[in-house]
Write a structure and sequence with these properties.
alpha+beta; 8 helices
């Protein structure tokens, strides 16, 4: 399987069609996504305001960061996050690639990334930077539970097995998110994502959502 970039999506030359949203589970999952996202946004309004002020006060840069990601079926979308890095972080990334602490170049993780701001380090530790992604869930680009959305540059380095992650909507949390987060090697992340896709159900989603809460509060594996 190979992939090429178009203006709006990744075109897969082969692979399985999208399998989500066509049955009772898919409809129930969407209802759960909308309910949880709406409630989370409403309850977190005070926190969202405080974080926005803190980001703006630190360096005067933009509060939000739109990150191009690849979703279900290879469709590209803009993933919304609180900005947790310096304004020109993307330009500095390529020069830092040799410092990557993951074993392969499909993902980039650096525990003490110098591009992360003081506010950014705190909000990333407790996944607060990802709160705006509930907006992506409401828009239908993401789900609360599913494989984490991939960066375009990473997808172009994927192998055949990796592309199966795009059979379902990307999510805020999934199996590897509650099993070690950033400390999990990418190959193991893929295995866990495919395990989720193979056994996904309404009860599985609920269990993963519940398990995510203490993991996020602990801050373990987030950097």
């Amino acid at each position: 399987m190979t992939a090429t970039l178009s203006n709006h999506s990744l075109i897969f030359t082969s692979g399985l069609p999208s399998i989500e949203g066509t049955d009772v589970y898919g409809h129930c999952k969407r209802i759960l996504d909308v309910a949880i996202s709406t409630l989370a946004i409403i309850l977190c309004i005070p926190l969202i305001v405080l974080v926005a002020i803190a980001i703006k006060c630190e360096d005067g840069g933009k509060i939000f960061y739109w990150s191009p990601r690849v979703g279900r079926g290879g469709r590209r979308f803009q993933c919304l996050k609180f900005r947790s890095m310096v304004v020109d972080a993307d330009k500095k990334k390529e020069a830092m690639r040799l410092l990557n602490q993951h074993a392969d170049d499909r993902t980039f993780k650096l525990r003490h990334d110098p591009r992360i701001t003081k506010v950014g380090r705190w909000i990333r530790r407790y996944s607060i930077d990802e709160l705006p992604q509930f907006y992506n869930v409401l828009c239908g680009d993401m789900s609360v539970v599913g494989p984490r959305p991939a960066l375009l540059e990473e997808v172009l380095r994927y192998n055949v097995l990796d592309y199966n992650r795009f059979d379902v909507l990307p999510g805020l949390t999934c199996i590897w998110q509650v099993s070690g987060r950033g400390d999990i090697p990418f190959d193991e992340q893929i295995v866990m994502d495919l395990e989720y896709i193979g056994c996904r159900s309404f009860s599985t989603d609920l269990k993963l959502i519940i398990k995510t809460i203490p993991v996020v509060l602990s801050g373990k594996g987030a950097y």
